Structures are given as structure tokens and as C-alpha cells.
Amino acid sequence: MTDLALPAAETAARTAAPTVAGRPRRRTLAYLQAAPLALVFLVFLVVPLVLTGIVSLWEYNEYEIIPALTLQNYADVFDGCLSADLCTTLRTYLSTVKFVALTLAITLPLGFAIAYFLAFYIRSGTVRMGLFLLCTIPFWTSNVIRMISWIPLLGRNGLVNDTLRALGLIRAPIEGLLYSDFAVVLAFVHLDTVFMIVPIFNSLARIDRRLIEAARDCGASGAQILWTVILPLAKPGIAIGTIFVTTLVMGDFVTVGVMGGQQIASVGKVIQVQMAYLQFPAAAANAMVLLAAVLLMILGLTRMIDLRREL
Amino acid sequence: MNVELIGLTKRYGAATAVDAIDLKVPSGAYCCLLGPSGCGKTTTLRMIGGHEHASAGDVVIGPKAVGDAAPSERGTAMMFQSYALFPHLDARDNVAFSLRMRGSGKVERRAKAMAMLDLVQMGHLAGRLPAQLSGGQQQRVALARALVTGPKVLLLDEPLSALDPFLRVRMRVELKRIQTELGLTFIHVTHSQEEAMALSDLVVVMNAGRIEQAADPRTVFERPATAFVARFIGGHNVIRLPDGLIAVRADRIRLGAEAGPAARPARVVAVEYQGTSVHVGLDAEGLERAPESPAALTAILSDADFAARPLRPGDTIPVGWDAAAAHRLDA
Fold it and tell me: Which of A97, A117, A147, A279 has its CA 20 to 30 A from that of A71?
């Protein structure tokens, strides 16, 4: 009897202790444990952001950057936006947002379908792991090489056009395959679908299989189960995946540049060009506006889905 | 509605989980499928509910064989182990779920769900999510959800095993009340013989995919059909005599002067005080001891009898039983 009672007494003592002396020490310990990551965030996120914010308020001319306080850079960003036709910034944002929408429209159903397949149809953990690795193949080589390799496939005399011509389906090569909106979206889908798959898979994997049986017992059809049980429970994963894809596409300049044949404007591209011309204050101002825009989009998303509650 | 199983079989590859069982559950009966884990009781239940495809045999519910009909077309409803409530829906919407799947209007299904929640005394917590409910409350919601479509047969998969002992006894009473009130056929899977005894009109003891005995609780306890039943149901001594196995209820074992002419000397190896009774473990010459049990025989004495003549481990005492108390076993 005493043997049995001992562990219970011990746990009681342990839970009681923090109320007396243990709590401050435990809190210090918690802060200590969080400190390394906090430090990384501080040095590599907060400090650069603050610096960018400061630089965005500086003046610049052709020769030098002058530490002063001016809102001119922001005024330049929105120059002409109040007039009837759209200003460059607004048009660039619209173009980028269009890519976000198109990429989401494809990666979301695609990512959900793949995640669903992995979570519900693959029983063996080894096979699942293998298929996951397959999803990461796009990341086995660098971004630039990956995009260059589209050229022999999609180019005017590329594999696709040649095959179609050989089959007699088309007479003249299709022009819009490369250096077009289509090519940009294709590259985004290729790159970003995995960022949709992983969080959605995570949500789906946590769904108790008995819920699906229970739904079937209640007379739900396959489509009803998907719509009323699986989809609501996958919402956190969908939200996180959407945030990933949105931020990736909003901030991109390489993909739009290469796949668009340097003909399509994007917000990231504007910033990159300004950096190339050493117009750091202008680039910083644009970056701050981009940051605000992305944050607003994420805020909108979290309004729709309460992530903190769902996690 | 009555439920009949005819040669019902479930095979997983080479392994047979349920081996051609036949069973008749009369309409309005409370039937418990009782057995150790892995005996095939849950698989049987799932085949009745349409959640598992039968390898062979038939399930007949009411007038017709249900074959491969979907769960909702059988007139059955299942209450799942650990309840399987939808975590994103509150109690009322959980109960209303099957009505929603059938396309009934919002107002109508919510009213029905509320009536059902009131039946299980959960009306006041209708707006809570499952995570905000205790185990017992979740179970009531699960029960309401199973009952809301008016099934004729309710299938319960270890419904009480996740509850603490005190709540288990309370919910047991509740289940029996609802079953009697609604006049439904309940088929309840459990590994607790106490639960099966307390609830059922028909106890079905299963072992290794077969039915060992199907009878009312009193018959199962008084006249266990096999050594397995006698051991599993508890309270019995299974004794190998030269001419076969017999079961003697532990409370019919006689010690000392009352042991009778066929008595043999036994050594006390364990004494356990249980409140109203005392369990005495005994070893005797010529009686084999089952591998996992602490003693060859167990005698249950009333606390008064024990107090009048206390025993201690190491004592030697004659042990016997009335010939009438010995029940011959099949195997």
C-alpha cells in the first residue's frame, strides 16, 4: 500500500511546490529556453526591419544617401495614384495579386488533393515518407537552374511545341508557353505546392478516423463528409498553407523575372531594380509598403480562421 | 427490431477474427457481447453496423438481410468508443448532424436535437463544443446523436470504458433507463463481466472469434457452458477431476467441518479482505493451479463467517463442496 501511495504523494508535492518558491525560478527557466530563438529573431528580423524602416525615411539623390527625415519616398511610391488611371505601384500590385490569386487557385485544390491522398489512402508510413520526398524534388536543385530547365521544355522550339507539331495538332508553335503569365504561374505552382501540402497534411493527419465512420453512420455521403467534416477540420492547415504561398508569391522577383522574360512587373522586381540602382531609401519605402500589404492580407485570413483557437 | 447473425465471418488475410457465429437477439433486448480483447466482439458489432464488410454470412435486422447496405440504411446507429464527436460542432449541431445530412431544415433539426439533448439531460450545455465537455457529458451527447434518427437497434462499442468508475455506474443506469424507455434493441460490446451482468437480458460470451455461450446473465453465471466462460465470468473455480472438468462457485466452497466427506486438506496461500466478503486462496494436493492465478482454489466467505473462524496464510484446512454445487463443463 505504501509503495503505491508514494508516487502519488510525490506528484502532489511537485504540483504544490511551484505555488511557493518554484514559480519564479520556473518562469526564468522558460524565458531562458525561449531566449536563443528570440535572439535570432531580434538580430535577423527585428533589427533589419527597423533599419529598413529608418532608411525608408532618408533622402537620396544620384550620388549619395542623406540621413534625414522625409516622407518623399512614400510619396514617390504612390505618385499619381489619386489620378484617374492607375499609378505604376497600384498596377504592379494588381499584377502581383493576380499571380497570388492564380497560384492559390491551383495550389490549394492540388495541395489539398495530394495531402488528402497521403493522409487517407496511404497506410504505410514508409511509402508516405517516400512520396513526401518525391514532393520535395523541386528543391533538390537551385531555383535558377530549375527555371532555366523550363526553357528547353516550353520554348518556341521546345519539347512541348515540337511534340505537338510532330503529332500534327498545331501548325505554328504556341508562343505563350514561355515568357508569359502562364509560365510564371506554372513555375509558382511547381515551387509552392509543397508549402500547401505539408500544413494541410498535418491537419488531415490529426483527424480521428472514427469521425469519418461516425459521419458515415449518420448517413453522410462521401461529398458530405468532405464538406462538413474534413474541410472544416483542415481549415488551420489551409490557412497556414495559404499564408505561405501568399507571402512567397508577393515577395518573389526571380520567378516573375525569369519566367516572364523580364517583361512582367512585380513588386519584388521593383524593389530589386531600385536596389540595383542603389536607390536604397526608395527600395526601403517600397519594402515597407509591401510588408504592410502582406500583413494586411494575413490579417484578413486570420479574421476568417481563428488560428490560435484551431492550433 | 430483432437482430440475427447467420454464419457471420470476418477474415483478415489468413487470420479469422470472427468465425461463423450464429446469434439471435430478440427485439427490445439488451444484449452484451462480452469477451477479452481480440475475441472478435467489436468486429462483430462493426459488421452489424455496416462499418466492416463481412467475409461470409449474413446480418438480418428485422425482416430483411442487410447485406452490404450502408450504415444509415440498416436502422442501426452506432455509439463509438471515445464517442467520436465532431470537434468543430457544438453539442446541438453534433446531435443534429445526421438530420442535416438528410437535408432537414435548420429550425426543425435543431428543435429535434434539443429534444434529444433534453432526454439525456444535456439541454443546458447544447452550445458547448466537445472539448468543453467532460467525458460523461460527451458520452451523453454521443448517445443523443445516435438516437436522434430513431434507430431500431443501437450499437455501443465499449461505451463506458473511458469513464471513471463512479460515472460508469451512473451511466450504466442511464443506458438501461433509456433502453427500457424507448424499447430499443441495444447491442453493447464490453470486456467487463460486471457491466454485462448488470445490464443485459442476453450475455454473449465470445472467445477467439466464436461464441462460447449466449444466455441470460443468471444462466451464464449459474451454469457456465465452458471452462473459458467460468473463468472469464469470475467467481468460479474450474477444477479438473479424473472424469472431466467441473465449475464450483467460489461462494459454494466449504471449509473446515462443513467440508463434507469428500474433503481434502488444503493450505491457505492468500487472504483478501473485500468488505462484505473475504476471498481465501487455497492450494491442495492434486489440484492444478492455473498459470496466472495465485491459488488453485478461491473460497469466498462472508465477513461474519471469516471473523468467527479467521484463517491465515500457511494454515491447513479441509476443503470440499456440495455435490449439487459442482457444475459439469463441456470443455
Answer: A97
